[in-house]
Structure formats: structure tokens, C-alpha cells
Amino acid sequence: MVKIRDNMRLLIQSIVSIFTNGYIEGFVNGTIYRGKLKQLCVPGLNCYSCPGALGSCPIGSLQAVIGDRQYKFTFYITGFLMVVGSVLGRFVCGWLCPFGLVQDLLHKIPFVKKIRNVKFHNYLRYLKYIILLIFVIILPLFVVDIIGQGDPTFCKYICPAGTLEGGVPLVLSNDAFKDAIGFLYAWKMSILIITIILSIIIYRPFCKYICPLGAIYSVFNGISMYQYRVNYSKCIECHKCTKVCKMNIEPFKTPNHLECIRCGDCKKVCPTNAITSGFKSVDTQDKKYDLSKI
Q1: Which of 21, 90, 138, 184 has the greatest CB tally within 10 Å of its CB?
Q2: Whether residue 199 sits in one domain with residue 270
């Protein structure tokens, strides 16, 4: 029972990944599901072109609308991101994202030396916001072809999740795709290989520094309905939560930090059970630390 509880996050991540990529026929025939479910977004980063994908990636969908020559403001996708973010924040990153699961599993692979503290981490973590602004919004909107159509720039030139979930399976199962392999595919494969290697050495480098979806959800962490709370009458400031946090934050000071993916490791190691989580109002939290300064 204890073992099941300790691996609950991994179990839920796996179930969500299998459920959102349950189109078995796609993997068998090398095709992409195009049914009605594809009109709906899934919460995590899950490539539209994955042969098993039953829903659409919110970042890919956002770019598709922004880059369309008949662009109209996307109330559905924007509303979807706002609702999910305001309810869960980056809980999605920690529990519901298939590519987050991939990185978690890669980091479990033994390596000579794991890097916990990346140099310039506090600056690099802002890179994902720059990528969101430039590659997801500005370039698809303003860099267009002769008919006014923009490219899904992030998906096309950067996203390693799309390469792993869509590009690799489709190329392996379709001879026509194999014949069409060129520089762009080699470039995307290089990014994927680098991401895999870094994920073994560093915990979730894509989530920390690159992912535009994580950037969107992070701004909701401090106001989302699902919150982490610290009871400072119980907290003894032993710093055990800080030592165990793989996202490099201090949970006892900023439990709803922009980088927190709500993995729950801090709650597990707290000797006084001072850290809790749930859908209660954050106004009941002891304001010993200024949580806005994150």
C-alpha cells in the first residue's frame, strides 16, 4: 500500500498518457487520428501528429489559429488555457503531461553525476517565456508566406515532444516519410537527442527552460484554485523540502512558486506535516513570507 502511494504520481502520469494516446490503429498503420475528439485540447504537451493522439496539443492549436491567414481570436483555446491554469496551475506539468512523464523516466536512468544546480538557472528559467512570446505568438503571427499563412514555429523548429511522439513513429512506419527526410528532420532529431541526454543529467530541463505551455500555466500558480500551503506554526525550517525539491525552489518560503509543478515531494519529506495542498482558499495561509516575490 505504501509503495502504491509513493508511486501514485507515476501511475497517474502513465494512465493519462495512455488514455490521451489511445488510438492504437494509428501506431499499427502509421496514421493520425482525425476524428471529432481531435477538436478538443488535452491539458499537457501532447503532439497532434502522434499516431495515438486522441486530442490536440494546446500550444499546437494556439499556433495553428494564430498563423492561419483567416486569423480570428481563439476564444476556445485561450479560454481552455485560462480555465485549466486557474484551476490547477502547473499541477498539469507534474501530473498530466506525457512529455513530463518522459523526462521523469529519463532522469531515473543512472548517470555518473547528476546536475542539481544549473549555472544561471535563475536567468535561464525565463527563457521559456521568451520562447512563448517569440516562437508561439510573434513569429506565427507576423512571419507569413505569400498567401498570409504563418508557420507553427515552435512545433516546426523546436518542440522535441513533437519529434518524439509524432515525427519518429510516423517516419518509422511510412516509407514516404523516410524518403522525405531532410535538414529539418535532422535538426529536430538533434534537439530531441540533446533533450534526452540533458533529461538524464538534469531534472526536467525542457520544463524548466523551454516549455511555453509550462510558462502559461506558471503564471496561474499563485492564484489557481489548487494551492500548496505552509502552516508556519508547524514549520521548523529544517530545509528538507528545499533539499528534495528538483525544481530548485524553497517550498517552505514560496509553496506556489512559478516553477512548482506540484509533484508532492516536499510534502512527503516534511517531518511536521506543515506542507499541505488542496482546493481551499490560500487566504488561510500564514503570511510569514511574501509569496509574491518569486
Answers
A1: 90
A2: no
